[in-house]
Write a structure and sequence with these properties.
The complex is a heterodimer of chains A (595) and B (583).
Chain A (H helix, E strand, L loop, with lengths): L4 E6 L2 H4 L3 H14 L6 E6 L11 E4 L3 E3 L7 H10 L24 H4 L17 H6 L4 H9 L2 H11 L11 H10 L6 E6 L8 H8 L1 H15 L3 E7 L3 H16 L15 E7 L8 H8 L23 E5 H13 L1 H5 L9 E8 L5 E6 L4 H8 L9 E6 L5 E4 L9 H6 L8 E6 L4 H15 L5 H18 L5 H17 L3 H5 L2 H9 L1 H8 L15 E3 L9 H5 L5 E2 L7 E2 L9 H5 L5 E3 L1
Parallel strand pairs in A: 1-2, 5-6, 5-8, 6-7, 9-13
Antiparallel strand pairs in A: 1-3, 3-4, 9-10, 11-12, 11-13, 14-17, 15-16
Helix pairs in contact in A: 2-3, 6-10, 6-13, 7-8, 9-10, 9-11, 10-13, 17-18, 18-19, 19-21
Chain B lengths: L2 E6 L2 E6 L4 H7 L23 E4 L5 E3 L10 E3 L3 H16 L15 H8 L23 E3 L9 H9 L6 E3 L6 E3 L16 H5 L5 E3 L3 H8 L5 E6 L20 H10 L4 E2 L2 H22 L6 E2 L4 H10 L13 H17 L6 E7 L3 H5 L16 E4 H10 L21 H4 L6 H15 L17 E8 L2 E9 L4 H14 L7 E5 L17 H16 L10 H11 L5 H7 L12
Helix pairs in contact in B: 8-10, 8-14
Classes of the chains: A alpha/beta (595), B alpha/beta (583).
Chain lengths: 595, 583
């Protein structure tokens, strides 16, 4: 049965938190009210990616892209667009365009994107397996089961050159091949969905928008390496993703695509979900496996690698969500096709969660080799509020900053590492001139310190010492020797920590020290925070020539630190001031300066 | 044996496949520093000191965890590694109190050693100490969380080696501490006081409760008649504290030292080991011949083991031999038999036991059965480590002491008594006497190889003139579960018990590597100490407990016969189910 119109409502966590469910229900009710249920279908999809503009509603076949929709808009959307065939201009994203219909492809945000991983996100109802199947879902599994040998699958992956998207970029075919060749009573397939970088939500969106792609891929891996059991390790903070995975698994079992004798091939494979408590370190594969086993989530030394000795000592393939989502497409379109995308060393695409001081924040998938400038300016629309770009942080707490000088670097695994950052799992946070680089480093260090498991001494002790040194510097108590200490500790942590969390935890400091040593010096020597962020290093002052004595600031000041008669110049009592910035934000005359 | 060829600092090394790089380096005469690795335990890879470079690779390897590989070329020491290690040591020191002079591990601390070797002269980093109180809840060991460097050895020992699970990491990141579950006091946890954690701790975070002061006060009290006993395993380990090789038999010097310390009488626990064999052996024969009492009979001379079974396998309590441990038997007869013989008021006797074991400190206060004499049967237990310190602090030049003899009437021992200190020894001693009890004859060859060795679980059959005795030996607490599960299963299925007699010792190798023995115990050291005990046995004129003249005398003069009423009162005890966690 086909419908005259399809109304796609974004059902990602971000839009859901902005009442997407109510919008969906309002639209369904409105369609019912207008007696259009036979002609119009309302679908809740996965994430469209353009989170800045959410909640998003897309209406097909016109491809009208409505943004920042509220439940109250449902009636108008149905009455105008569906009934009268007139787009609701005020809700269209590119309403200024002269074109009759604003197609998604016309939106800059999507123009440079290339969607493999997110191919179905925003297109299908993730809670309906038929929609996945309609878009070639499970065709790859069928091909693998009936037309390919396990070695051919691995060869295809090798040709594709797919590398792990979780951060380290290890060739996927090698992992699979190690597990395939390893001996074990049984073998396991594990999906690492313990996404934990601050600001990153690529994996969550993939699972919310297209859960079957991961299930299909894991089943393909099971067939290839000889495993009959899979586990998805996902943090409990992702309830929607878990819910959709559970629905998807039930539907797949019902369709004979999961469980015993899949598609009558004689191959058995099933998947269980294991919930994590949200420890960042459990994204490290050995800690993750320990956690699945019910042990404290702490990394163990490798080798042996999980591929050979993993879950309960058995050979285990463990890949990240984004890696999995690539697999079915590679099996269908071929490794050659995939290897044409991207750069020489990094094939395919990468999903980034673009956030920070950017105009269009959201989830973007670009071919490897796209430059940072293209992502930030073309896709992201540049820096918000016309501020100046300062740096972009990639790789989350394991990564580093990249400055304007390197914006034309094509993104791939090697180039980012060379710049002292890393690909990581895909967090990309843009900073402007108002961001203090020492404060940024402190933020990431504090994250790593909080998330350290405490097992190895370099990370456990070094991390806290580094974080405290940064605290000391931002408090205005920094000394020159602190820089040396940070470098010394940072380098010992990099070399002597047990797992990647500890080895990369100093990166935010080492990389900012490398590019912004002046700013550290300003904090340490001049006792100034150039970005005006570090409270201990700034003072608010009222400019005599600009203050008109309106008393607005004095009334806003939460501690009564501002005094002055009406219509005369006000004064801030520096001893009482808590540097909250309320006066600065309140003054309409630019009479308050930060020094 | 698969051999791997590799290079350490350019020098070719041949080593068994499966070894780690630490072992390969040792073969090349190179020591790589480590604070968390211990040869008894799988690599935990926490401290970060043992990092080494692999030629042509930017990543460092942890020598403790990385397996050797063909053609591997490793650099163990260079300027960068020196700096990294020094930084790591300085970082660890920044979270460790620098009160070395007042520390239980002053002079034996592994961290102190590295700080000295790396010439740490200042504290460059911010100092952050853990401000938590000591756990002194047990009478055996003290936990000092402020000293803990989170190397994880104690947790691994407690969980993997001993299967006790009293200790675990609690909290995360730099809030991590080692503690019993739910931060309970150690005494309310499943802890069995074996003290293996203290024997493996590289620093002063876990140590035996020091009671030297009580001893010194007792010997200087003219009202008190101080008598001592020394456990079998002490005599082959104490010498290590005076730079003698492990396994050196120092029995005569120990007797001599005790007299110089001012004790009135020097007895030997080995005598009561023989007494234990008489009681336990008779008990076994009785169970086997009368069908009364649970089979298999399981030894009960190890207090950590009895504590473990009372907590983890209470259903098997009937299988325990009711015989007390040699130390407690010695204590009971000291204040009765000896007191009578020597005409000493038992109320004035202060009975001290020198033991390889921290659980012995717990055992003396276990329950009322430990007051069989009407007094506290054993007043004080000093571990071998405390005893060594006591000798040194008392100015005794141990190495030049003349050998002396123990005092009568409870100081003489057979070879069987001395091998109580090693795994398989109690079994062998018991079989020597059981053979006699069952056949009326003595074994021609008293050395029973079937029960000797270091495998964690050993089983065998012993032919006693046509009767086959199925025996099993387990040591290292975690190894015992396989045996007990086997027994449980047979019982559940209504099958014949798989064994007649089981010997269990909580510590790997037996008492020779008890929790109170000198530090740096490894399997090599265990083997040397065990060899020392077997030598002591071989050199004994009398090899079987029932042939010990003083044993014959005590039965003739005082106890009557094994399992007599008097024996039961003084030498036997009861066991009770205990909760894993006290609420």
């Amino acid at each position: 049965m086909s419908y005259r119109n399809y109304i796609l409502v974004c059902g990602g966590t971000a839009c859901e938190s902005s009442k997407a469910t109510e919008i969906y229900e309002a639209l369904v009710n409105e369609i019912k009210h207008q007696n259009l249920t036979e002609e119009v279908q309302v679908i809740k999809t996965g994430c469209f990616g353009f989170c800045e503009q959410g909640p998003i509603v897309k209406i097909l076949p016109e491809d009208s892209f409505y943004v920042q929709v509220t439940p109250a808009d449902a009636k108008e959307l149905v009455e105008e667009h569906i009934v009268k065939g007139r787009e609701v201009k005020r809700l269209l994203y590119n309403k200024d365009k002269s074109k009759k219909h604003a197609k998604v492809e016309d939106i800059e945000f999507y123009q440079k994107q290339f969607r493999i991983v997110l191919r179905n996100c925003g297109f299908i109802d993730p809670e309906n397996i038929d929609e996945y199947i309609a878009r070639e879902g499970y065709a790859a599994l069928e091909k693998v089961l009936f037309e390919m040998t396990p070695d051919q699958v691995i060869d295809e992956l090798r040709t594709a050159g797919l590398r792990g998207r979780g951060g380290a970029g290890f060739p996927t075919w090698m992992k699979w091949n190690f597990t395939k060749q390893a001996n074990g009573e049984c073998k396991y397939v594990v999906c690492n969905a313990d996404e934990g970088d601050p600001g990153a939500y690529m994996d969550r969106s993939t699972l919310e928008g297209d859960p079957h792609s991961v299930l299909e891929a894991m089943t393909i891996a099971g067939r290839t390496v000889g495993a009959n059991q899979g586990f998805i390790y996902i943090r409990a903070e992702y309830p929607l993703a878990i819910h959709r995975l559970e629905i998807a698994m039930a539907q797949a079992r019902e369709y004979g695509l999961l469980g015993k004798n899949i598609l009558n091939s004689g191959f058995d494979f099933d998947i269980e979900i294991r919930l994590g408590a949200g420890a960042f370190v459990c994204g490290e594969e050995t800690a993750l496996l320990a956690s699945i086993e019910g042990k404290r989530g702490m990394p163990v030394p490798r080798p042996p690698f999980p591929a050979v000795k993993g879950l309960w000592g058995m050979p285990t393939v463990i890949n990240n969500v984004e890696t999995w989502a690539n697999i079915p497409v590679i099996m269908l379109k071929g490794g050659d096709w995939f290897s044409q995308i991207g750069t020489a060393d990094s094939h395919g695409t990468k999903v980034f969660a673009l956030t920070g001081k950017i105009r269009n924040s959201g989830l973007v998938e670009v071919p490897m080799g796209t430059t940072l400038r293209e992502i930030i300016y073309d896709i992201g629309g540049g820096i918000a509020n016309d501020r100046k770009f300062k740096a972009v942080q990639t790789g989350g707490p394991s990564g580093g900053v990249i400055t304007a000088d390197y914006l034309d670097t094509p993104i791939d695994f090697a180039s980012l590492t060379k710049l002292g950052s890393m690909m990581g799992s895909g967090g990309m946070i843009v900073m402007d001139e108002d961001d203090c680089i020492v404060d940024v480093a402190k933020f990431y260090l504090n994250f790593s310190v909080e998330e350290s498991c405490g097992k190895c001494s370099p990370c456990r002790i070094g991390g806290r010492t580094l974080a405290n040194l940064l605290e000391k510097i931002t408090k205005g108590n920094g000394e020159l020797k602190d820089i040396e200490q940070m470098k010394e500790i940072g380098s010992a942590m990099k070399k002597a920590s047990l797992c990647a969390l500890g080895q990369t935890a100093p990166n935010p400091i080492l990389s900012t020290l490398n590019y912004f040593e002046d700013e550290y010096m300003a904090h340490i020597v001049d006792k100034k925070c150039p970005a005006g962020k570090c409270k201990s290093l700034i003072t608010y002052n009222i400019l005599e020539d600009k203050c008109i004595g309106c008393t607005a600031c004095a009334r806003k000041c939460p501690v009564g630190a501002i005094s002055g008669e009406r219509r005369s110049v006000h004064v801030i009592d520096q001893a009482a001031c808590i540097k909250c910035g309320a006066c600065f934000d309140t003054c309409k005359f630019g009479a308050i300066e930060v020094r | 044996m698969n051999t791997v060829h590799m290079k350490i600092n350019g020098k070719p090394v041949e080593i068994e496949a499966g070894s780690n790089i630490l072992a390969a380096a040792k073969k090349a005469n190179v020591n790589i520093p480590t604070l968390c690795y211990h040869p008894d335990l799988p690599a935990w890879a926490a401290c970060g000191l043992c990092v080494v470079k692999q030629e042509n690779s930017p990543k460092l390897l942890r020598a403790c965890a990385a397996p050797v590989q063909e053609n591997l070329s490793i650099i163990t020491h260079d300027a960068e590694l020196y700096q990294i290690r020094k930084t790591v040591i300085e970082m660890i020191l920044s979270t460790h109190p620098n009160d070395c002079l007042m520390c239980a591990r002053n002079g034996t601390c592994e961290l102190q050693r590295f700080a000295a070797e790396f010439g740490v002269r200042e504290q460059p980093y911010e100092v952050r100490l853990v401000d938590l109180p000591k756990d002194t809840s047990t009478t055996s060991i003290v936990l000092d969380p402020s000293k803990c460097i989170k190397c994880g050895r104690c947790v691994q020992v407690c969980q993997d080696m001993q299967g006790v699970f009293a200790l675990e990491f609690i909290g995360r990141g730099d809030h991590t501490v080692v503690s019993p579950a739910a931060d309970l006091p150690l005494n309310d946890s499943p802890c069995i006081k074996c003290g293996q954690c203290s024997a493996h701790c590289p620093v002063g975070a876990i140590y035996e409760k020091d009671e030297i002061g009580d001893f010194v006060r007792a010997v200087s009290n003219p009202e008190l008649h101080v008598v001592t006993q020394i456990a079998p395993a002490v005599r082959v380990a104490l010498g290590e504290s005076f730079n003698l090789p492990a396994g050196t038999i120092t029995t005569g010097k120990i007797y001599s030292a005790l007299r110089r310390l001012g004790v009135a009488k020097v007895f030997d626990t080995n005598f009561s080991a023989d007494l234990t064999i008489m009681e336990e052996g008779s008990e076994l024969v009785k169970r086997l011949t009368t069908g009364k009492g649970a089979i298999p009979q399981i030894t009960s001379c190890c207090p950590a083991w009895t504590d473990y079974m009372e907590k983890y396998y209470p259903d098997m309590i009937p299988n325990f031999s009711t015989a007390k441990s040699p130390m407690m038997m010695q204590g009971a007869i000291t204040k009765t038999y000896y007191a009578e013989k020597a005409n000493v008021d038992p109320a004035t006797i202060y009975s001290v036991a020198i033991m390889p074991c921290t659980a012995k400190k717990y055992e003396i206060g276990r329950d009322d059965n430990m007051h069989a004499s009407g007094f506290k049967d054993v007043d004080l237990v000093l571990t071998t480590r405390e005893f060594a310190r006591l000798i040194k602090a008392s100015g005794i030049d141990f190495l030049t002491l003349e050998d002396e003899k123990a005092d009568s009437p409870i100081g003489e021992y057979a070879g069987a008594g001395t091998i109580f200190g090693n795994t398989g020894g109690v079994m062998e001693a018991a079989l020597r006497t059981a053979y006699n009890l069952m056949t009326g004859e003595d074994l021609k060859n008293v050395e029973i190889d079937a029960v000797r060795g270091m495998e964690g679980v050993r089983t065998g059959e012993v032919d006693i003139k046509g009767t086959t005795l199925k025996v099993a030996v387990a040591h290292g607490m975690a190894n015992v579960s396989t045996l007990l599960e086997e027994v449980r299963e047979a019982k559940a299925n209504g099958d014949e018990p798989p064994y007649h007699f089981i010997e269990v010792m909580a510590c790997r190798g037996g008492c020779v590597s008890g929790g109170g023995q000198p530090y740096a115990t490894t399997d090599e050291v265990r083997a040397q100490r065990i060899a020392g005990l077997y030598t002591d046995d071989e050199q004994s004129e009398v090899r079987c407990s029932h042939q010990n003249p003083e044993i014959k005398q005590i039965y003739a003069d005082y106890l009557g016969a094994p399992l007599s009423e008097k024996s039961h009162h003084l030498l036997h005890t009861t066991y009770t189910e205990r909760p894993l966690y006290k609420h």
